[in-house]
Amino acid sequence: MSDHVYKSIELTGSSEKSLEDAVSNAITKASETVRNMRWFEVTSTRGHIADGKVAHWQVTLKIGFTLE
């Protein structure tokens, strides 16, 4: 494995279904314009409550990608 230099960006994904779906939504959207993504780190988790129930999940994550 050769040495790599990474750049990271911060994104927030959301979902009405689950935390995992919120992460997937952020990564899927980022993959439309960001190449060489290699890792992610969840930095915070939030939720929205409506009528006494979880209505929405928000997950903030850092995504690392290699520079060309």
Textual characterization of the structure:
The chain has 68 residues and is of the alpha+beta class. The chain contains 1 helix and 3 strands, in the order βαββ. Strand 2 and strand 3 form a beta hairpin. It is elongated, with a radius of gyration of 14 Å.
Question: How are the SSEs ordered, and which strands pair?
Answer:
Elements lengths: L5 E10 L3 H12 L6 E14 L2 E14 L2
Antiparallel strand pairs: 1-3, 2-3
Mean pLDDT: 95
Strand content: over 45%
Roughly how many Å apart are the termini?
A: 15 Å
Helix content percent band: 10-25%
The string of secondary-structure elements, in order, is EHEE
Spatial order of the strands forming the largest sheet: 1-3-2
Count, helices: 1
State the total count of DSSP E strands: 3
Radius of gyration: 14 Å
Poorly predicted runs of 5 or more residues: none
Based on CA inertia axes, which overall geometry fits? elongated
- Biggest beta sheet summary: 3 strands, antiparallel
What structural category characterises the helix and strand content?
alpha+beta
